[in-house]
Write a structure and sequence with these properties.
Elements (H helix, E strand, L loop, with lengths): L1 H27 L9 E8 L10 E4 L2 E12 L4 E9 L9 E7 L4 E7 L12 E2 L1 E3 L4 H9 L4
Parallel strand pairs: 1-7, 2-6, 5-8
Antiparallel strand pairs: 1-4, 2-3, 3-4, 5-6
Length: about 150
C-alpha cells in the first residue's frame, strides 16, 4: 500500500512540473491562447530596414504593443507592417508611425506619435502618416562624397 502512495505522490509532482513548464512556454513565447487583450493596426513604410517581428511598438516611451508581421506590397512598392496594440490604447487617425533606433546596438522599434484628431482608428485600420527608417550608411556616404 505504501508503494502506491509513493508512486501517486511522485506522479502528482511530475504532473505539476509539466504544468509549470507549459505555462512558462506560453508566457516566455509571448503566445496568446484565448483571444488576447489587443487589436491590430497597419502601417505602410518606405523602409523598415532592421525592423523585425516581435519588435516593440511605443507611445510616449511606453511599450503599448508589438510588431506581428512585415510584408512587401507589390502594388505600392512599400513595406506593410501589422502591429498588435494593447486594448485601452487609443490611436487617432492623425497619428504618425516612425521606425526608430534604440540604443547603440541599433534595435529598431515603432514609435507612434499622437495626432490632434478626435477620430480614433478602429481595429484593422491603417496609420496613414509614416516615417521610414534612417539609413545611416547612406547618410555617411552622402557626407563623404559631398552630396549633403
Amino acid at each position: 500500500m505504501k508503494k502506491y502512495s509513493q508512486e501517486t505522490t511522485v506522479g502528482i509532482f511530475v504532473f505539476l512540473g509539466l504544468l509549470c513548464v507549459a505555462y512558462l512556454t506560453v508566457k516566455l513565447g509571448q503566445m496568446e491562447l484565448m483571444g488576447g487583450n489587443s487589436y491590430q493596426l497597419r502601417a505602410s513604410f518606405t523602409s523598415v530596414s532592421g525592423l523585425r517581428s516581435g519588435s516593440a511598438v511605443e507611445m510616449a516611451g511606453v511599450q503599448v504593443g508589438k510588431v506581428v508581421a512585415i510584408s512587401f506590397d507589390q502594388e505600392t512598392m512599400r513595406a506593410q507592417v501589422v502591429m498588435q496594440i494593447d486594448n485601452g490604447i487609443n490611436v487617432d487617425d492623425e497619428s504618425i508611425a516612425s521606425v526608430k533606433t534604440s540604443g547603440l546596438i541599433g534595435d529598431k522599434y515603432i514609435k507612434i506619435s499622437r495626432g490632434g484628431s478626435d477620430f480614433l482608428l478602429s481595429p484593422g485600420e491603417t496609420i496613414i502618416d509614416t516615417e521610414g527608417a534612417i539609413d545611416l550608411e547612406e547618410l555617411i556616404s552622402k557626407y563623404i562624397f559631398g552630396d549633403v
